[in-house]
Amino acid sequence: MRRPVRFLCAVALMICAGMTGAKTLRFASAFDPNSLDPHSLALLYQTRVVTQIYEGLVNRDKEFKLEPSLALSWEPLDGAKRWRFRLRPNVNFHDGAPFTADDAVFSIERALAKTSQRANQLRGVIGVRKVDPLTIDVLLSAPDAVLPEKLWLVAMMSRPWAEKHGVLLPQDYNAKQETYAVRNANGTGPFRLKSYDPDQRLVLVANPDWWGRGAKDVGNVTEAIYSMIQADATRLAALASGQVDFVIDPPFQDIARLKAQKDRQLKFAEISDIGTQYLGFDQHRDEPQFVELPPGKRGANPFKDLRVRRAIYHAIDIDLIVGKVLRGQGTPTGSHLSKLVDGYTPDVEARLPYDPAKARALLKEAGYGEGFGVTLDCVNVTFRAAVCQAIAAMLAQVGIRVNFQPSPSAIFFPKLTQATASFFEFGWSPSTDPWAMLQNTVRTYDGAGSGAFNGGRYSNPKLDALIDAIRVEPDLARRRQLVGDALRLMHEDLPLIPLYRRTLTWVMRPNVHVVQWPNDVLELRWVRID
What we know:
By secondary structure, the protein is an alpha+beta fold. Helix content is 30%, strand content 22%. The protein folds into 2 domains: 145 residues, Dipeptide-binding Protein, Domain 1 (Dipeptide-binding Protein, domain 1, Alpha-Beta Complex), CATH 3.90.76.10; 228 residues, Dipeptide-binding Protein, domain 3, CATH 3.10.105. Helix 9 runs antiparallel to helix 11 and helix 15 runs antiparallel to helix 16.
Protein backbone atom coordinates (compact mmCIF):
# COMPACT_ATOMS: atom_id res chain seq x y z
CA MET A 1 0.00 0.00 0.00
CA ARG A 2 2.97 2.34 0.33
CA ARG A 3 3.21 3.47 -3.29
CA PRO A 4 -0.47 4.47 -3.59
CA VAL A 5 -0.27 6.40 -0.31
CA ARG A 6 2.85 8.24 -1.45
CA PHE A 7 1.24 8.97 -4.80
CA LEU A 8 -1.90 10.43 -3.18
CA CYS A 9 0.27 12.58 -0.89
CA ALA A 10 2.21 13.83 -3.89
CA VAL A 11 -0.99 14.70 -5.72
CA ALA A 12 -2.26 16.51 -2.65
CA LEU A 13 0.93 18.53 -2.42
CA MET A 14 0.68 19.52 -6.06
CA ILE A 15 -2.98 20.49 -5.68
CA CYS A 16 -2.17 22.62 -2.64
CA ALA A 17 0.67 24.24 -4.54
CA GLY A 18 -1.71 25.00 -7.36
CA MET A 19 -4.16 26.63 -4.96
CA THR A 20 -1.77 28.65 -2.83
CA GLY A 21 1.79 28.92 -4.08
CA ALA A 22 2.10 27.72 -7.66
CA LYS A 23 5.03 29.34 -9.42
CA THR A 24 5.38 28.91 -13.16
CA LEU A 25 8.61 29.84 -14.91
CA ARG A 26 8.19 30.49 -18.62
CA PHE A 27 11.61 30.45 -20.22
CA ALA A 28 12.75 30.56 -23.82
CA SER A 29 15.70 29.65 -25.98
CA ALA A 30 16.49 29.37 -29.67
CA PHE A 31 17.29 25.67 -29.28
CA ASP A 32 15.32 22.47 -29.13
CA PRO A 33 16.95 19.72 -27.01
CA ASN A 34 16.67 17.40 -30.06
CA SER A 35 16.29 14.29 -27.87
CA LEU A 36 15.43 13.45 -24.26
CA ASP A 37 17.51 10.27 -24.28
CA PRO A 38 20.19 11.31 -21.77
CA HIS A 39 22.94 9.13 -23.25
CA SER A 40 22.36 9.72 -26.96
CA LEU A 41 23.71 13.27 -27.03
CA ALA A 42 26.43 15.31 -25.33
CA LEU A 43 25.27 18.75 -26.44
CA LEU A 44 24.70 21.85 -24.32
CA TYR A 45 21.22 22.42 -25.74
CA GLN A 46 20.09 18.98 -24.62
CA THR A 47 21.86 19.24 -21.24
CA ARG A 48 19.80 22.32 -20.36
CA VAL A 49 16.69 20.15 -20.32
CA VAL A 50 17.61 16.57 -19.45
CA THR A 51 19.53 17.51 -16.29
CA GLN A 52 16.32 18.85 -14.81
CA ILE A 53 14.79 15.37 -15.22
CA TYR A 54 17.69 12.95 -14.88
CA GLU A 55 20.49 12.94 -12.32
CA GLY A 56 23.94 11.39 -12.18
CA LEU A 57 25.95 9.96 -9.33
CA VAL A 58 27.60 13.39 -9.01
CA ASN A 59 26.49 16.93 -9.75
CA ARG A 60 27.73 20.48 -9.21
CA ASP A 61 26.90 22.99 -6.51
CA LYS A 62 26.16 26.70 -6.85
CA GLU A 63 29.89 27.42 -7.20
CA PHE A 64 30.15 24.82 -9.99
CA LYS A 65 32.15 22.48 -7.76
CA LEU A 66 31.59 18.73 -7.78
CA GLU A 67 29.11 17.50 -5.15
CA PRO A 68 27.29 14.26 -4.27
CA SER A 69 24.02 13.55 -6.04
CA LEU A 70 22.72 9.98 -6.38
CA ALA A 71 25.97 8.82 -4.83
CA LEU A 72 26.50 9.91 -1.23
CA SER A 73 30.23 9.19 -1.26
CA TRP A 74 33.00 7.57 -3.28
CA GLU A 75 36.53 6.32 -2.74
CA PRO A 76 39.34 4.90 -4.89
CA LEU A 77 40.42 1.31 -4.28
CA ASP A 78 43.25 -0.82 -5.70
CA GLY A 79 45.37 2.26 -6.46
CA ALA A 80 42.43 4.03 -8.18
CA LYS A 81 41.85 1.14 -10.61
CA ARG A 82 38.50 0.62 -8.89
CA TRP A 83 36.18 3.24 -7.45
CA ARG A 84 33.44 2.42 -4.96
CA PHE A 85 30.27 4.52 -4.95
CA ARG A 86 27.76 4.36 -2.10
CA LEU A 87 24.32 5.26 -3.40
CA ARG A 88 21.74 7.51 -1.85
CA PRO A 89 18.94 5.50 -0.18
CA ASN A 90 15.20 6.11 -0.49
CA VAL A 91 15.36 7.63 -3.97
CA ASN A 92 12.55 6.90 -6.43
CA PHE A 93 12.20 7.37 -10.15
CA HIS A 94 9.30 9.48 -11.36
CA ASP A 95 7.21 6.34 -11.97
CA GLY A 96 7.65 5.36 -8.30
CA ALA A 97 10.23 2.59 -8.79
CA PRO A 98 13.18 2.67 -6.37
CA PHE A 99 16.66 3.63 -7.55
CA THR A 100 19.11 0.80 -6.79
CA ALA A 101 22.56 -0.46 -7.67
CA ASP A 102 21.02 -2.46 -10.54
CA ASP A 103 19.90 0.80 -12.16
CA ALA A 104 23.30 2.41 -11.62
CA VAL A 105 25.12 -0.54 -13.20
CA PHE A 106 22.70 -0.55 -16.13
CA SER A 107 22.98 3.22 -16.65
CA ILE A 108 26.78 3.29 -16.79
CA GLU A 109 26.82 0.28 -19.11
CA ARG A 110 24.22 1.99 -21.31
CA ALA A 111 26.30 5.18 -21.39
CA LEU A 112 29.24 3.07 -22.64
CA ALA A 113 27.26 1.76 -25.62
CA LYS A 114 28.41 2.53 -29.16
CA THR A 115 25.46 4.83 -29.87
CA SER A 116 26.08 6.91 -26.73
CA GLN A 117 27.84 10.26 -27.02
CA ARG A 118 28.67 9.94 -23.30
CA ALA A 119 30.88 6.90 -23.93
CA ASN A 120 33.84 9.10 -24.77
CA GLN A 121 34.02 10.69 -21.33
CA LEU A 122 34.06 7.23 -19.72
CA ARG A 123 37.24 6.15 -21.48
CA GLY A 124 39.04 3.55 -19.36
CA VAL A 125 35.91 2.18 -17.69
CA ILE A 126 35.90 -1.57 -18.36
CA GLY A 127 33.03 -2.64 -16.15
CA VAL A 128 30.59 -1.88 -13.36
CA ARG A 129 29.81 -4.30 -10.54
CA LYS A 130 27.04 -4.39 -7.98
CA VAL A 131 28.41 -4.85 -4.44
CA ASP A 132 25.09 -4.64 -2.59
CA PRO A 133 21.71 -2.95 -3.24
CA LEU A 134 23.20 0.52 -2.59
CA THR A 135 26.87 0.09 -3.56
CA ILE A 136 28.65 -0.27 -6.90
CA ASP A 137 32.25 -0.57 -8.03
CA VAL A 138 33.42 1.04 -11.27
CA LEU A 139 36.31 -0.96 -12.75
CA LEU A 140 39.07 0.71 -14.77
CA SER A 141 41.77 -0.45 -17.17
CA ALA A 142 44.26 1.89 -15.48
CA PRO A 143 44.30 4.12 -12.39
CA ASP A 144 42.15 7.21 -12.74
CA ALA A 145 42.47 9.80 -9.99
CA VAL A 146 39.61 11.97 -11.22
CA LEU A 147 36.99 9.42 -12.28
CA PRO A 148 34.12 11.13 -10.36
CA GLU A 149 34.56 14.23 -12.56
CA LYS A 150 33.93 12.08 -15.62
CA LEU A 151 30.65 10.78 -14.23
CA TRP A 152 29.10 14.26 -14.25
CA LEU A 153 26.17 14.31 -16.71
CA VAL A 154 26.09 10.50 -16.95
CA ALA A 155 22.40 10.07 -16.16
CA MET A 156 20.93 7.31 -14.05
CA MET A 157 18.00 5.54 -15.73
CA SER A 158 15.53 2.90 -14.55
CA ARG A 159 16.40 -0.50 -15.98
CA PRO A 160 12.80 -1.81 -15.70
CA TRP A 161 11.49 1.31 -17.49
CA ALA A 162 14.08 0.91 -20.26
CA GLU A 163 13.18 -2.77 -20.66
CA LYS A 164 9.47 -2.03 -20.74
CA HIS A 165 9.82 0.58 -23.49
CA GLY A 166 12.54 -1.09 -25.56
CA VAL A 167 15.27 1.47 -24.90
CA LEU A 168 18.03 -0.66 -23.39
CA LEU A 169 20.43 1.04 -25.81
CA PRO A 170 20.75 4.80 -26.44
CA GLN A 171 19.12 6.35 -29.46
CA ASP A 172 21.40 6.45 -32.52
CA TYR A 173 21.09 10.19 -33.04
CA ASN A 174 23.28 10.35 -36.14
CA ALA A 175 21.08 7.75 -37.83
CA LYS A 176 17.97 9.79 -36.90
CA GLN A 177 16.59 6.86 -34.92
CA GLU A 178 13.27 7.36 -33.14
CA THR A 179 12.79 5.57 -29.80
CA TYR A 180 10.47 5.92 -26.83
CA ALA A 181 13.22 7.69 -24.84
CA VAL A 182 13.46 10.50 -27.40
CA ARG A 183 10.16 12.09 -26.35
CA ASN A 184 9.54 10.46 -22.97
CA ALA A 185 11.57 10.48 -19.76
CA ASN A 186 11.69 8.88 -16.33
CA GLY A 187 14.41 10.20 -14.06
CA THR A 188 14.90 10.87 -10.36
CA GLY A 189 15.44 14.62 -10.70
CA PRO A 190 13.68 17.69 -9.31
CA PHE A 191 11.36 17.96 -12.33
CA ARG A 192 9.19 15.52 -14.22
CA LEU A 193 8.38 15.65 -17.92
CA LYS A 194 4.76 16.57 -18.58
CA SER A 195 4.87 17.09 -22.34
CA TYR A 196 7.30 17.64 -25.20
CA ASP A 197 6.42 19.03 -28.62
CA PRO A 198 9.72 19.16 -30.58
CA ASP A 199 10.73 22.59 -31.86
CA GLN A 200 7.83 24.17 -29.99
CA ARG A 201 7.40 23.60 -26.26
CA LEU A 202 8.42 21.39 -23.37
CA VAL A 203 6.66 21.41 -19.99
CA LEU A 204 8.16 20.24 -16.70
CA VAL A 205 6.44 19.97 -13.33
CA ALA A 206 8.11 19.87 -9.92
CA ASN A 207 8.71 16.42 -8.46
CA PRO A 208 7.35 16.59 -4.89
CA ASP A 209 9.12 13.32 -4.02
CA TRP A 210 12.56 14.54 -5.06
CA TRP A 211 15.11 13.56 -2.42
CA GLY A 212 16.55 17.10 -2.33
CA ARG A 213 13.23 18.89 -1.96
CA GLY A 214 13.76 19.83 1.69
CA ALA A 215 17.11 21.61 1.27
CA LYS A 216 17.11 25.26 2.35
CA ASP A 217 18.32 26.66 -0.99
CA VAL A 218 15.78 24.84 -3.19
CA GLY A 219 13.66 27.14 -5.34
CA ASN A 220 9.89 27.38 -5.52
CA VAL A 221 9.12 26.70 -9.19
CA THR A 222 6.24 24.23 -9.52
CA GLU A 223 6.03 24.29 -13.31
CA ALA A 224 8.52 25.26 -16.02
CA ILE A 225 7.41 25.91 -19.59
CA TYR A 226 10.32 25.88 -22.02
CA SER A 227 9.55 27.51 -25.38
CA MET A 228 11.75 27.09 -28.42
CA ILE A 229 11.72 30.45 -30.25
CA GLN A 230 14.44 30.60 -32.89
CA ALA A 231 13.82 34.13 -34.17
CA ASP A 232 15.71 36.65 -32.02
CA ALA A 233 13.12 39.42 -32.36
CA THR A 234 10.26 37.10 -31.51
CA ARG A 235 12.08 35.70 -28.47
CA LEU A 236 12.75 39.18 -27.15
CA ALA A 237 9.23 40.35 -27.92
CA ALA A 238 7.87 37.43 -25.89
CA LEU A 239 9.90 38.66 -22.91
CA ALA A 240 8.87 42.29 -23.37
CA SER A 241 5.19 41.40 -23.62
CA GLY A 242 5.25 39.16 -20.56
CA GLN A 243 4.72 35.90 -22.47
CA VAL A 244 7.97 34.55 -21.03
CA ASP A 245 9.84 35.39 -17.84
CA PHE A 246 13.40 34.40 -18.76
CA VAL A 247 15.53 34.21 -21.92
CA ILE A 248 18.77 32.28 -21.71
CA ASP A 249 20.08 33.49 -25.08
CA PRO A 250 18.94 37.08 -25.66
CA PRO A 251 19.98 38.67 -28.97
CA PHE A 252 23.54 39.92 -28.45
CA GLN A 253 22.86 43.00 -30.56
CA ASP A 254 20.09 44.13 -28.19
CA ILE A 255 21.77 43.66 -24.82
CA ALA A 256 23.36 47.12 -24.60
CA ARG A 257 20.09 48.79 -25.58
CA LEU A 258 18.13 46.81 -23.00
CA LYS A 259 20.61 47.69 -20.26
CA ALA A 260 20.47 51.39 -21.19
CA GLN A 261 16.72 51.69 -20.79
CA LYS A 262 16.06 54.00 -17.85
CA ASP A 263 12.71 52.48 -17.05
CA ARG A 264 13.75 48.94 -17.73
CA GLN A 265 11.59 46.20 -16.30
CA LEU A 266 14.24 43.55 -16.79
CA LYS A 267 17.32 42.38 -14.94
CA PHE A 268 20.47 40.63 -16.12
CA ALA A 269 22.92 37.96 -14.98
CA GLU A 270 26.37 37.79 -16.59
CA ILE A 271 29.35 35.47 -16.33
CA SER A 272 32.31 34.50 -18.52
CA ASP A 273 31.80 31.30 -20.47
CA ILE A 274 33.87 28.30 -19.39
CA GLY A 275 33.64 27.22 -23.02
CA THR A 276 35.46 28.39 -26.13
CA GLN A 277 34.48 28.86 -29.79
CA TYR A 278 36.80 27.35 -32.39
CA LEU A 279 37.41 26.92 -36.10
CA GLY A 280 38.14 23.37 -37.23
CA PHE A 281 39.31 21.82 -40.49
CA ASP A 282 39.24 18.50 -42.30
CA GLN A 283 42.79 17.30 -41.72
CA HIS A 284 42.12 13.68 -42.66
CA ARG A 285 41.11 13.41 -46.31
CA ASP A 286 43.69 13.70 -49.08
CA GLU A 287 41.36 16.26 -50.66
CA PRO A 288 38.49 17.74 -48.63
CA GLN A 289 34.99 17.32 -50.03
CA PHE A 290 34.00 20.98 -50.04
CA VAL A 291 37.18 22.73 -51.21
CA GLU A 292 37.82 24.29 -54.62
CA LEU A 293 41.54 24.10 -55.37
CA PRO A 294 43.58 25.83 -58.10
CA PRO A 295 44.62 23.52 -61.00
CA GLY A 296 48.13 23.00 -59.70
CA LYS A 297 46.95 21.81 -56.27
CA ARG A 298 44.23 19.30 -57.25
CA GLY A 299 44.28 16.27 -54.99
CA ALA A 300 45.80 18.19 -52.07
CA ASN A 301 44.42 19.11 -48.67
CA PRO A 302 45.46 22.67 -47.75
CA PHE A 303 44.42 22.19 -44.11
CA LYS A 304 47.07 19.54 -43.53
CA ASP A 305 49.64 22.30 -44.00
CA LEU A 306 50.34 24.20 -40.76
CA ARG A 307 51.20 27.29 -42.81
CA VAL A 308 47.63 27.38 -44.14
CA ARG A 309 46.15 26.99 -40.68
CA ARG A 310 48.36 29.81 -39.42
CA ALA A 311 47.42 31.93 -42.43
CA ILE A 312 43.74 31.59 -41.53
CA TYR A 313 44.55 32.50 -37.93
CA HIS A 314 46.48 35.64 -39.00
CA ALA A 315 43.66 36.65 -41.36
CA ILE A 316 41.02 36.89 -38.60
CA ASP A 317 40.70 40.13 -36.65
CA ILE A 318 38.99 38.62 -33.62
CA ASP A 319 39.18 41.87 -31.65
CA LEU A 320 37.09 43.55 -34.33
CA ILE A 321 34.64 40.63 -34.38
CA VAL A 322 34.14 40.70 -30.61
CA GLY A 323 33.91 44.48 -30.48
CA LYS A 324 31.69 45.14 -33.49
CA VAL A 325 29.93 41.90 -34.42
CA LEU A 326 29.34 40.60 -30.90
CA ARG A 327 28.97 44.13 -29.47
CA GLY A 328 31.58 43.40 -26.81
CA GLN A 329 29.82 40.24 -25.60
CA GLY A 330 32.96 38.11 -25.55
CA THR A 331 36.69 37.89 -24.89
CA PRO A 332 39.27 37.02 -27.59
CA THR A 333 41.48 34.09 -26.65
CA GLY A 334 44.49 32.20 -27.92
CA SER A 335 44.09 29.38 -25.40
CA HIS A 336 42.06 26.28 -26.16
CA LEU A 337 40.87 26.16 -22.53
CA SER A 338 39.45 28.75 -20.14
CA LYS A 339 41.22 29.80 -16.96
CA LEU A 340 38.27 28.23 -15.11
CA VAL A 341 39.55 24.79 -16.17
CA ASP A 342 42.17 23.06 -14.03
CA GLY A 343 45.57 23.09 -15.73
CA TYR A 344 44.99 26.34 -17.65
CA THR A 345 48.32 27.80 -18.75
CA PRO A 346 48.55 31.62 -19.11
CA ASP A 347 51.51 31.47 -21.52
CA VAL A 348 49.27 30.23 -24.37
CA GLU A 349 46.65 32.93 -23.97
CA ALA A 350 48.29 35.33 -26.47
CA ARG A 351 46.85 35.03 -29.97
CA LEU A 352 48.73 35.11 -33.22
CA PRO A 353 48.46 38.75 -34.33
CA TYR A 354 45.99 39.89 -36.95
CA ASP A 355 48.26 40.27 -39.99
CA PRO A 356 46.71 39.86 -43.48
CA ALA A 357 50.06 40.41 -45.17
CA LYS A 358 51.57 37.56 -43.15
CA ALA A 359 48.56 35.41 -44.02
CA ARG A 360 49.02 36.02 -47.76
CA ALA A 361 52.75 35.29 -47.49
CA LEU A 362 52.10 31.98 -45.68
CA LEU A 363 49.53 30.94 -48.29
CA LYS A 364 51.97 31.73 -51.10
CA GLU A 365 54.73 29.81 -49.32
CA ALA A 366 52.40 26.80 -48.99
CA GLY A 367 51.60 26.93 -52.72
CA TYR A 368 48.21 28.61 -52.45
CA GLY A 369 49.15 32.08 -53.65
CA GLU A 370 46.06 32.03 -55.89
CA GLY A 371 43.93 31.12 -52.89
CA PHE A 372 41.21 28.48 -52.84
CA GLY A 373 37.50 28.12 -52.10
CA VAL A 374 35.90 26.33 -49.16
CA THR A 375 32.50 25.85 -47.51
CA LEU A 376 32.27 27.02 -43.89
CA ASP A 377 29.65 25.14 -41.85
CA CYS A 378 28.10 26.91 -38.89
CA VAL A 379 25.05 26.60 -36.65
CA ASN A 380 22.32 29.02 -37.77
CA VAL A 381 22.17 30.86 -34.43
CA THR A 382 22.34 34.61 -34.98
CA PHE A 383 25.54 35.41 -33.11
CA ARG A 384 27.40 32.41 -34.51
CA ALA A 385 26.18 33.06 -38.04
CA ALA A 386 27.25 36.71 -37.76
CA VAL A 387 30.73 35.68 -36.63
CA CYS A 388 31.04 33.17 -39.45
CA GLN A 389 30.01 35.79 -42.00
CA ALA A 390 32.64 38.18 -40.64
CA ILE A 391 35.29 35.47 -40.82
CA ALA A 392 34.29 34.71 -44.41
CA ALA A 393 34.76 38.38 -45.36
CA MET A 394 38.17 38.55 -43.67
CA LEU A 395 39.41 35.37 -45.35
CA ALA A 396 38.33 36.76 -48.72
CA GLN A 397 40.84 39.57 -48.19
CA VAL A 398 43.71 37.06 -48.27
CA GLY A 399 42.37 35.00 -51.19
CA ILE A 400 40.31 32.31 -49.46
CA ARG A 401 36.82 32.31 -50.94
CA VAL A 402 34.34 31.12 -48.33
CA ASN A 403 30.87 29.77 -49.02
CA PHE A 404 29.10 30.29 -45.69
CA GLN A 405 26.59 27.52 -44.96
CA PRO A 406 24.42 27.92 -41.84
CA SER A 407 22.40 24.91 -40.64
CA PRO A 408 20.09 24.07 -37.73
CA SER A 409 21.76 22.16 -34.91
CA ALA A 410 20.02 18.90 -35.88
CA ILE A 411 21.87 19.03 -39.21
CA PHE A 412 25.12 20.65 -38.09
CA PHE A 413 26.11 18.40 -35.18
CA PRO A 414 25.88 15.11 -37.10
CA LYS A 415 28.28 16.71 -39.61
CA LEU A 416 30.64 17.39 -36.72
CA THR A 417 30.49 13.92 -35.18
CA GLN A 418 30.64 12.17 -38.55
CA ALA A 419 33.40 14.48 -39.85
CA THR A 420 31.65 15.38 -43.09
CA ALA A 421 32.43 19.13 -43.02
CA SER A 422 35.60 20.60 -44.51
CA PHE A 423 35.73 23.83 -42.48
CA PHE A 424 33.53 24.50 -39.47
CA GLU A 425 32.88 26.68 -36.43
CA PHE A 426 31.83 25.08 -33.16
CA GLY A 427 32.03 25.54 -29.41
CA TRP A 428 32.79 23.27 -26.47
CA SER A 429 31.76 23.83 -22.85
CA PRO A 430 33.93 21.64 -20.59
CA SER A 431 33.68 20.92 -16.90
CA THR A 432 36.44 22.19 -14.63
CA ASP A 433 38.47 19.13 -15.63
CA PRO A 434 40.31 19.41 -18.99
CA TRP A 435 40.52 15.76 -20.01
CA ALA A 436 37.07 15.37 -21.56
CA MET A 437 37.51 18.37 -23.86
CA LEU A 438 40.90 17.10 -25.04
CA GLN A 439 39.66 13.53 -25.40
CA ASN A 440 36.57 14.56 -27.35
CA THR A 441 37.86 17.25 -29.70
CA VAL A 442 41.53 16.64 -30.54
CA ARG A 443 42.45 13.06 -29.67
CA THR A 444 42.70 10.71 -32.64
CA TYR A 445 39.30 9.31 -33.62
CA ASP A 446 39.15 5.55 -33.17
CA GLY A 447 35.44 4.77 -33.53
CA ALA A 448 35.38 3.42 -29.98
CA GLY A 449 34.98 6.65 -28.00
CA SER A 450 38.11 8.70 -28.60
CA GLY A 451 37.71 11.84 -30.69
CA ALA A 452 33.92 11.66 -30.87
CA PHE A 453 33.75 15.41 -31.64
CA ASN A 454 37.04 15.57 -33.54
CA GLY A 455 35.27 16.85 -36.63
CA GLY A 456 38.46 17.27 -38.65
CA ARG A 457 39.88 13.86 -37.67
CA TYR A 458 43.10 15.56 -36.60
CA SER A 459 45.68 13.05 -35.39
CA ASN A 460 48.90 13.69 -33.47
CA PRO A 461 50.48 10.73 -31.61
CA LYS A 462 52.40 13.04 -29.28
CA LEU A 463 49.21 14.85 -28.25
CA ASP A 464 47.39 11.50 -27.88
CA ALA A 465 50.08 10.31 -25.47
CA LEU A 466 49.70 13.46 -23.37
CA ILE A 467 45.90 13.11 -23.26
CA ASP A 468 46.16 9.47 -22.23
CA ALA A 469 48.69 10.36 -19.53
CA ILE A 470 46.42 13.11 -18.18
CA ARG A 471 43.63 10.56 -17.75
CA VAL A 472 45.61 8.28 -15.43
CA GLU A 473 48.07 10.63 -13.68
CA PRO A 474 47.33 10.56 -9.90
CA ASP A 475 49.62 13.43 -8.90
CA LEU A 476 47.76 16.74 -9.32
CA ALA A 477 50.87 18.87 -9.91
CA ARG A 478 52.19 16.46 -12.52
CA ARG A 479 48.76 16.27 -14.14
CA ARG A 480 48.61 20.05 -14.48
CA GLN A 481 52.04 20.00 -16.06
CA LEU A 482 50.82 17.47 -18.62
CA VAL A 483 47.79 19.65 -19.38
CA GLY A 484 50.11 22.62 -19.92
CA ASP A 485 52.25 20.55 -22.29
CA ALA A 486 49.15 19.56 -24.26
CA LEU A 487 47.94 23.16 -24.49
CA ARG A 488 51.37 24.35 -25.69
CA LEU A 489 51.43 21.66 -28.36
CA MET A 490 47.95 22.68 -29.52
CA HIS A 491 48.99 26.34 -29.49
CA GLU A 492 51.83 25.43 -31.84
CA ASP A 493 50.19 22.85 -34.13
CA LEU A 494 46.67 24.35 -34.28
CA PRO A 495 44.38 21.34 -34.51
CA LEU A 496 41.71 23.99 -33.87
CA ILE A 497 41.91 27.78 -34.00
CA PRO A 498 40.61 29.27 -30.73
CA LEU A 499 38.46 32.35 -31.31
CA TYR A 500 36.72 33.78 -28.24
CA ARG A 501 34.77 33.07 -25.09
CA ARG A 502 31.31 34.49 -24.82
CA THR A 503 30.00 36.69 -22.06
CA LEU A 504 26.95 34.69 -21.01
CA THR A 505 24.11 37.13 -20.49
CA TRP A 506 20.74 36.01 -19.20
CA VAL A 507 17.80 38.40 -19.12
CA MET A 508 14.70 37.97 -16.95
CA ARG A 509 11.87 39.68 -15.18
CA PRO A 510 12.86 41.32 -11.84
CA ASN A 511 10.97 38.79 -9.73
CA VAL A 512 13.02 35.83 -11.07
CA HIS A 513 16.12 34.85 -9.08
CA VAL A 514 18.64 32.38 -10.51
CA VAL A 515 22.06 30.84 -9.97
CA GLN A 516 24.25 31.28 -13.03
CA TRP A 517 26.74 28.59 -14.00
CA PRO A 518 29.56 29.34 -16.50
CA ASN A 519 28.39 26.60 -18.89
CA ASP A 520 25.14 28.41 -19.85
CA VAL A 521 22.83 25.92 -18.10
CA LEU A 522 19.99 27.17 -15.90
CA GLU A 523 19.42 24.81 -12.97
CA LEU A 524 15.70 25.00 -12.23
CA ARG A 525 16.18 23.48 -8.77
CA TRP A 526 17.48 26.85 -7.50
CA VAL A 527 15.13 29.25 -9.29
CA ARG A 528 12.92 31.39 -7.04
CA ILE A 529 10.03 33.54 -8.19
CA ASP A 530 8.70 36.30 -5.96
